[in-house]
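Attaching the record inline, Q. Sequence:
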Amino acid sequence: MKQSSCFSMVRVLMYCLTGSVILASQMAPGMTASSSSVGPQRSVVSPAGPGPAGNSTARPQPNGGVSAPLLPPAIIYNSIPGPSLPPNVPSLGYQATQSAEFGDLIQFAGAGRSLTTVTLVMSDWALASDWPSFNPSWTHPITLNLFNVDSSGPNPAPGTLIATRTNTFPIPWRPPADPTCPGGTAWRAGDGNCYNGFAFTISFDLTGTTVPNQIIYGVAYNTLTWGYHPIGVEGPYESLNFGLATVAPSVGTNPFPDTAYWNTATAGNYADGGTGGVNVFRRDTAWTPFSGAISFQTAAVAAAPDTCLRDNTTADFLEWNATTGDYTFTHCGPHGFTLTGTGKVGLVNGIRTLMDSKPDRTISALFNTGQLTGMANVAIKLAPGVSQNFHLNDTIPHATCTCGT
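Structure, as predicted:
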């Protein structure tokens, strides 16, 4: 028999609709059911048991200097359970809940806002044996939408579209049932527990997309009778779910942890009973403790300098980051140039140091953090035994690292 992502959502009572329950989940060891105790709730079956059937990169320098090392890519939002993905997670079945799109309003951490990759968790409840025509594997198109936050109304709403990506992903089958699992329909994972679904991740390439501090995202895909463009043909996508997290994000924040953004055709699925409309991607409440399991990664960014030495006479300057050792030396004037790299940094008795020795250069610098002054020597090796030397003497506190006066 085909495994449906059957689950229930509690508004006034728990119910099962056309053999598929509202919010798909897993059962916990011993098949105990549990639910949140917060307000109007979305009951989940706990997590184990059968249910009802990069390296641094470089950036070019305008003066033609050596490229500067960049800080490694950073995660600016992460709600994916970890450190390793569990065998299954609570999830929202789009066919079971008559859904077209689901997401959340999130706030990013850190300073980087140039995205590279967005990864989210899915849960597949489909068995290969139920869909022989799809063997040996199947794929499905899934869309990720990123929206600005429209705060002009009483509640935040999806605003203008920042970016959208639709990719066709290979979908792994849920492992076959283990007859030793309670009910005989779930599969047994390496942790010894039984699960109805199989958790996996998919990733979207968002290279070139810059986001603000807050966004609303939505995940959309079509099923047999639901979605923006229902397929109209039975398939394993009826048992494909979007994975949910049950704890606060480890990176970034969820400013409104009890809310989600949802497009469902069933009025009773919404906390307001549909008074705000159906078949529209809009704000919904009573989602504690659930949110989408998703992460956002940014591109590598240059390490910002926090130390500056500027020669009193020539205006040549050396600036570096006292944590990463990323530095830039600039020789000012008509034949000026820029030299960048990464050296070794230190701090002893309030004196910051920078040292770098490479085949083409030798750099040493001292900066007194109490007096905000210092000195540096930069030797550029032009040929064996031939060097061009620059000495920086900075006795002016709060010097600005520019060539101008």
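The first strand starts at residue 16 and ends at 17. Residues 176 and 187 are 6 Å apart (CA to CA).

More tomorrow.
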